[in-house]
Amino acid sequence: MRAVGVRPAGPGIIAGAAGATAARLILPAPPGETLAGSTLLTMALVALAAALAATRAVGRIPEQSLIGTAAVCAGAGMWLAASDPVGGAGTAGLVVAAAGFGPAVALHRLLIAEAAEAPASPGRWPARDDAGNEARFALFGWYWTALTLGALGVFLASMAQPVGLAAVLRGAGAAAAAGGLLSLLAPLRGGDPAPDGIAVPDAPWARRAAVAAFGFGALFAGGASAGYELLAGEWQRTPQGAAGVLAATAAGAGVTVTVGRWFHRLGCRRGAGRAAAAGHQMLLGGGMALLGAFSFTYIGLIVSWILAAGSLVLAAVGLDSATWAGFRPTTRRVVAARQVVAFAAGAALSVALSVALPAGRYDQLRIAVPSLACILAGYLLARRSPADPAAVGHPRRAWSATVPGRVEQGPGTPLLRLAGAGVAYDGVQVVFNADLVVPEGRIVALLGTNGAGKTTTLRAVSGLEALCEGRILYRGLDITRTPPTWRVGMGLQQIVGGGAVAGELSVAETLRLFAHSVPRPQVTAGIAAALEQFPRLAERRSQSAATLSGGEKQMLALAKAFITSPRLLLIDEFSLGLAPALVDELLPALRGIAARGTAILLVEQSVDLACELADYVYVMEKGEIRLHGTPADLQAQGDLVSAVYLAGAPASPLT
What we know:
Blueprint: H1 2-6, H2 9-26, H3 37-58, H4 63-83, H5 88-116, H6 133-160, H7 165-185, H8 203-233, H9 239-259, H10 261-267, H11 271-293, H12 298-323, H13 329-356, H14 363-384, E1 405-406, E2 416-425, E3 428-438, E4 443-447, H15 454-461, E5 467-474, E6 477-478, H16 484-489, E7 492-495, H17 507-514, H18 520-533, H19 535-539, H20 550-564, E8 568-571, H21 580-595, E9 599-604, H22 607-613, E10 616-621, E11 624-629, H23 631-636, H24 638-646, E12 652-653
Parallel strand pairs: 4-9, 4-10, 7-8, 8-9, 11-12
Antiparallel strand pairs: 1-6, 2-3, 2-5, 5-6, 10-11
């Protein structure tokens, strides 16, 4: 419980400081203090530049030291800005603060995500599943509640008397520095795989998170300030009354996330289901903000904005907890940095609109434009993440199964296990009750005649075909409904017959295409290893891959394994159409791939080749696995193998 409580404490304090500062910037300047529109625009541009710098920083500097150090720098910058809020020193302080908050905001979510994966004491924390989804949602809920409480404190204080920017900056700066120091007491593990085992995110997920962050930034930065001016202008509210409305809005957001009924419903969802629900909440939040701006009654405005704030913060919690469910820490920080950049971009555009349109008659328009941006972001998020998985071929009862969950893990857990797997095409089942195991670092062959179901089984493992029964376990995780792109990120890759040739690309261009998901420092070494293994490809680097011979195309396909270093390599019809001499030439390459620690599942028709190469063999006939055993067992039962190939035989192990 201590780990679960300490890790989010620093980020929570930093979030509260950010909320307090944002609230003060929304309010008008008290007597003797002025904040020109150009100053606000400068601050927005500074935040955007700092977010871009944070993107570079998170990819190069270990987050263990960057989170705390960045927050301390942010606090120091805010103290410097407080000395001269509108002068040169203040601008310099804002630059330092923004440069510190960029990496801190990008990375302190990782502390929260990791805390959800730490063990919790029974009875001291909400019920959670094996992947920590319940705890993750609860922790992100308290994080966003801390941000709303920081804003609420400033709004409540301003109802009594005007609050100076210098005082808020000093207090928030001290809090941010304290949060940074507390973060340093509980550093990240760094480099450990996430429990879900995913290394590279599905590209649409990263785009969804960035689009949603853009909508949040536009509405929070532009809508709040314009909302205050609408209250003070059209509705003729006093500064204290306008601050009271904003305080009620912030309080409603905090209550909605912590104790509202939506909290429990959204907290029980996972993966695409939770992301879709977050998109719906963004639609509701943007719509309520727009409705409140054009409301004909004062009570209607207040109620609409309270609902809008609650929906938006709830959407932020759901999106955060869904986004981090399946990424390694190194991937999480990149996606988080993209979110910060998108949020800053939305905020900068919204503030620029506020400066361009004067207050008064344009206040409703200044709220409408960012509200529409938020509505569009919510629509894109919900449309790309259908809440009803039946629309994408998933059973309704398994709507939350996109993100893999832990099933079994331990020293004896195989790398891949097919448990009762079945595949159907257009309602006709072609693979039945397939049970297959691939241990770590081993070569396993799947034999059978044409039409036996071998290629279909391989496509099911790689995610290109959906199962109609059974499940697929990879590294102890149920990946039955995990998208194919996620499986690639988990280290599972397939070489499809003829799949090494892409259009008119040359051999060198094809090799670089294989390396699209490989970290840049490793690309050169991987391509060099592939060319060393296949000197013939080095001689034809500038030649079009489509003009290679069949054997050379197979070499090009196998080169992918030397570049990407997968955990499991699926090879379909390795020797099909190749001369025996060329097959003998390629066998050392397969053994070299296995020697690098890659397990191989090889689909083959030749019994002799499988017995020479594989550690274990499965024989498939008419969609069912009929025989399995070691190559020695297979060779000792030659008559039984012939019976399976020619007439079919009952399934039995060769022991």
